[in-house]
Amino acid sequence: MKGKDLETVIHAFITSRLDYCNALYFGLPQSQLAHLQLVQNAAARLLTGKRRQEHITPVLSSLHWLPICFRIHFKMLLLVFKSLHGQAPLYISEMLQHYSAPRSLRSADKGLLCVARSRLKNKGDCAFAVAAPRLWNALPPDIRSAPTISTFESRLKTYLYTLAFPS
């Protein structure tokens, strides 16, 4: 099988399954995410012909594949962006509230979101209404203020790539 064909098959059968509902994986213990990471690593090795003994980080970096935990953040933040721009289901958009300061502050126009309070530290902090605003507020302002989805995706992937693969 040729390289481009193999890449298409890997994206169709493996990457698409790893990304399916992966925002639900937010907050899972690293031990459980490691199983998904092993699948991604195996797919990267199959595509590049690298052996199991070779370190996987340079391989993922050369393919421009984000590790699983960053893919989860990417999908969740993309859902927030779509929600804020009216391109997501209403039930998701209703979970997000823009931050409005009680008085005039410089942070009023930064595009921040209110972080809902949770009673349960472990499970409650993983809920979309809590986790998504925290991730969103942690983004640099130039990413939050992206005008289009394609610009947002590009800036976000670049940002997450620099976090995942510091040079």
- What is the H-and-E element order? HHHHHHHHH
Helix coverage percent of residues? Answer: 55-70%
Q: What is the beta-strand fraction?
A: under 5%
The computed structural class is: mainly alpha
Structure notes:
There is one protein chain. It contains 9 helices and no strands. The model has no long low-confidence stretch (mean pLDDT 89). α1 (3-19) runs antiparallel to α2 (30-48), α4 (68-84) crosses α7 and α4 runs antiparallel to α9 (149-164). The two termini are 33 Å apart. It has helices at 3-19, 30-48, 57-63, 68-84, 90-93, 121-124, 128-138, 141-144, 149-164. The protein has 167 residues and is mainly alpha-helical.
Features:
9 helices, single chain, mainly alpha, elongated, 167 residues
List the helices and strands and how they pair.
Elements: H1 3-19, H2 30-48, H3 57-63, H4 68-84, H5 90-93, H6 121-124, H7 128-138, H8 141-144, H9 149-164
Helix pairs in contact: 1-2, 4-7, 4-9
Describe, in short, the structure shown.
By secondary structure, the protein is mainly α. The protein has nine helices and no strands. The chain has helices spanning 3-19, 30-48, 57-63, 68-84, 90-93, 121-124, 128-138, 141-144, 149-164.
